[in-house]
Amino acid sequence: SDGSIRLHQMTSEYPLMQWNDSTNGQPVIALQWALTRPAVFFVLDASSNIYIWDLLENDLLPVAKQAVPSDNVVTMAVLGEPEKTTGLLGIALAKESGLIDIQYVKKKWALP
């Protein structure tokens, strides 16, 4: 609820990494790992901002932020085929109006 993100290992109750205020205090609505690249994850906040984290590129801050204007995004799902090396990775955004928007991710964050 405060925008913090924690990375845990299954064998410990303490986080390996913690990023406080990672969404400028906005609650995190959804967080999903990329299906094609293990070091990349996506965060959706309550203000309809999507943050892309690539831990191999920068483990302190997101590598990109994209605002989704005009229609609140209520949830997201990551799309991709991990068994294929095409680097095709997308995010399905469910909007408050009932519309579904599919956005594709740049190959540099999608390739294995």
Automatic annotation (TrEMBL):
Lineage: Eukaryota, Metazoa, Chordata, Craniata, Vertebrata
GO biological process: intraciliary transport
Protein name as catalogued: WDR60 protein
Naturally occurring in which organism (per UniProt): Eudromia elegans
A single GO cellular-component term on record: cytoplasmic dynein complex
GO molecular function: dynein heavy chain binding; dynein light chain binding
Transmembrane segments: none
